[in-house]
Amino acid sequence: MAKHNINIQDGYLFQNLKEGQTLEVDLVTGKSLVGRLKRFDRFAIVLESEGKESLVYKHAIATITIAA
To answer: What is the distance between the alpha carbons of residues 30 and 6, in angstroms, rounded to a whole number?
Structure first.
């Protein structure tokens, strides 16, 4: 029987990448970043805010939510 790897993280990020919604990314340090997701891979995301891109490693992220 084939084993299916379900990756909730990639599905969530890919959907947001397509929709282009503004995200609020809370880091484990307590800092929050707000911006649009530009790219992501297994280890990091690129968040664009005010014309600048920030590379954020996934291990530093506590939560990701749609910004209100």
So the answer is: 29
Cβ pair 8, 30 in contact under 8 A: no
Q: What is the pLDDT of residue 1?
A: 64
> What is the predicted pLDDT for the residue at 68?
79
- Domains of the chain (ranges; CATH) run 8-66 (2.30.30.100)
8 A C-beta contact, residue 35 and residue 22: yes
Q: What DSSP assignment string belongs to 35-68?
A: EEEEEE-SSEEEEEETTEEEEEEGGGEEEEEE--
Segment 14-64, tens digit of pLDDT: 999 999 999 999 999 999 999 999 999 999 999 999 999 999 999 999 999
